[in-house]
Amino acid sequence: MPKSNESTAKLNDTPATSTRLIDEITAEQPRYKRGTKIDRIIEALEGQDREDFIAALRDKSISNVVIVRVMKRRGFDISESGISTYRSQIYVTE
C-alpha cells in the first residue's frame, strides 16, 4: 500500500487546467437528448398515434407486455421495465 505522501504526490502530478471541473464533467456526457426512451417515442409519434400511445401508458388495464409487443412490431426499441418506470412516474404525479 502506498504511503500517504506518495498518493498525494500522484494526485498533485495531475496537470493543472484552467477548465472548471463542472465543464470538464459535462463535456464527457453523452451527446444524446435527455429523457427516457418513452419520452423519445412520444416525440417521434404524431397525431392520433401519439395520443393513443399516451392513453395506453395511462390505462392500467393494458399490460406492459402488450404495449411492448405492439410498439416493437412498429419498429420502436422499448422494454417492459422502461414502461413500468415511466408508468410509476405518471401514477405518482396524477
Secondary-structure map:
Layout: H1 4-12, H2 21-27, H3 37-44, H4 47-58, H5 64-73, H6 80-93
Describe this structure as you would to a colleague.
This protein is an all-alpha fold and 94 residues long. The protein has a domain at 32-94. It is built from six helices and no strands. The longest helix is centred in the C-terminal third of the chain and has 14 residues, at 80-93. It is elongated, with a radius of gyration of 22 Å.
The unreliable regions are none
Chain-averaged pLDDT: 83
Question: How would you sum up the major sheet?
Answer: none
Assembly type of the chains comes to single chain
Alpha-beta classification: mainly alpha
Beta-strand residue fraction: under 5%
Offer a concise description of the structure.
Helices cover 64% and strands 0% of the residues. It is an all-alpha fold and 94 residues long. The chain has a domain at 32-94.
Question: What keyword list fits this structure?
Answer:
single chain, 94 residues, mainly alpha, 6 helices
